Amino acid sequence: MKIAVIVGSTRPKRLGSAVGAWVLEQAEQHGGAEFTLLEVADFDLGTNYEQSTDKSYEEPSTQRWSDVVDEFDGYVFVTPEYNHGLPAPMKSAVDLLYTEWAGKAVAFVGYGGVGAARAVEQWRMVVANLGLLGVRQALHLQMADDFEDDRVAPLPKRTGEMKSVLDQLVELTATLRG
Question: Which Gene3D superfamilies does the UniProt entry name for this protein (predicted)?
Answer without folding.
Answer: 3.40.50.360
